[in-house]
User: What shape does this take?
Amino acid sequence: VNSALIDAAVLAELIDQQFANVEEGAETDAELSAALLKYSQLQVPEGLALYDLSFGPEGELGLLGRLRVLLSTVRDTIFGGKLGIGRPLLQVQL
Assistant: This one.
């Protein structure tokens, strides 16, 4: 699933909900601010989790652990599971 597409859909839905009861010509800054705040509260934790998944647990590993993660990523990028070496890239699996 494309996280950017999900983010866009969530933001559109929140803006629609926030503006559903606004009368035409009314001040809309407060409604837009409220929709953006709700969006941040919902989507920022997910974005941070995706960021952590993308870059791995570098903060928790020592030098050798980071080197192991780096080498396995390089292996997977080069071979991508072909010839039984490494794992297929995530994009291939989607």
Q: What stands out?
A: The chain has a mean pLDDT of 81.
